[in-house]
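Why Glutamate decarboxylase 1? Reviewers of the renewal asked for a concrete example.
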Amino acid sequence: MVIKKPYIISVILIFLSRVYLPTRDSMWMNTNKNFNHYEFLESIYLISDKSTKYILSACFNNDKILYLTWLFISFFFFPLDLLPSKDSKDLTKCFLLQVANILLHYIKKTFDVKTKILDFHHPHQLLEGLDGFNLELSDHPESLEQLLVDCTDTLKYGVKTGHPRFFNQLSSGLDVVGLAGEWLTATANTNMFTYEIAPVFTVMETILLKKMYEIIGWGETEADGIFAPGGSISNLYGILVARYKQYPEIKRQGMTALPCIVLFVSEQGHYSVKKAAAILGIGTDNVIEVKCDERGRMIPAELEKNILEAKRKGQTPFCIVATAGSTVFGAFDPLHAIADICETHRLWMHVDAAWGGGLLLSRNYSSKLSGIERANSVTWNPHKLMGVPLQCSAILIREKGLLEACNQMRAGYLFQPDKLYNVDFDTGDKTIQCGRHVDVFKLWLMWKAKGTCGFEAQIDRYMELAKYFYKVLKKKDNFKLVFDAEPEFTNVCFWYFPPRLKHIPKGCERDQELQKIAPKIKAQMIEEGTAMISYQPCGDKVNFFRMVFSNPATRRADVDYLIDEIERLGKDL
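Here is what the prediction returned.
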């Protein structure tokens, strides 16, 4: 593809740049403030004929002409003009440079505290279309220019989860090295089921899993594991393997071959445990929730009592799910005491450390997970506390061979035993999936970039920020902490009391009013795009805010800002 008619094109572009563009409210020009003129001009230059090269050289430092050159080209070319449909590597390069430029501009805005976290619109507005951003699909291809506008708008109307004032989820932040890893993964576009199609990635996964076993404390055993699509699926794996270990006949005969089996989890445990029970045919009624203490930790004596009661009813306990870092309170169940009970009753111990697993990397705080080395299986989500881009979760099994025995189906078209390499690296038959996304490379690359010490420093800083936030709130009359004691983890739960509620006596009337405060404040935050923080009720506690620290961009100034913002938005409620 060669650009010809240079003089006509240049006259049009120069005219538009002087007459039309200065008055145009161009989303594109806003997006391209960080335009790399050199790279862009080079890509246009390469696909131009001799006389056009001369004109482009003369326009080398003219933003408007460069922009309009791309606009002219992209308007008349479509995705089918890119590789591999046509031999147009230069047009492909030009297009991808523009995509990269959009992403770089977005990253810069994400880290800028002056930028809104989101430009909120209701679902019906997005469905109807906004300022030329139409989500409906057409029968005919759109131009490259339209695709790039769509890329810009998709980011514009989304949530900047890497923003320093985004506190809404356990997974937040934007790690640039991890992002680079995800780009490479998408470009490689391969599957994780066999070594022959993912040789580097499958070996990488083996190395990462071995590192995680050692950190847990399984260094002396030959453990096993796999990266799974999220903590809920990792928890499902843990329960699936626990059941298979005790009842291997389940694989062939199904649930009819089993007695009425039950499992135990704390009342603060993740809802995915019940979901797994429903999926596996165990039933949610057979998930027994164990009472917690005032900080949300499972009470071992209550667990023992529940096990004995289940046995008296003719039920058969098979698994206990302990939590290391609960979603709301950040609580850590007493793992050693639970492990003792598991050994006494010969039960499988699964630890859901999806949120808290990252603390194992900190010498200052890893003792909170003391006893995890006694678990039979562990869920650990590096996409949470470690800040790896979503998603990145591992299920780790202390006994090698169980994952494969439980899930293996020996599909002959994938898992031939007579390949030219060591088929132990064909991991696909361990999984409940067939196709599996490459989630390991971004974690591996980040570990290379930070080292274990870098992750440790990052996690220790989150813990210090949580303590700082707690101490500031403790001094403020219009804030009340859900727990008076210092936070166990990076979760800090609290209420905000508007002036009018401070003098209402504690009771139903005050609770009814307090229940409405957090939702109203958050709604205003979202509409203004200033910050994001979650809230929820829990047990007899009406709606309260839950602050979590897992964003490397967050500083003390952002914490102070959030407190001021809650007061600003809530003082007249």
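Residues 440-474 form the longest helix (35 residues). This is the kind of structural detail the renewal will allow us to pursue systematically.
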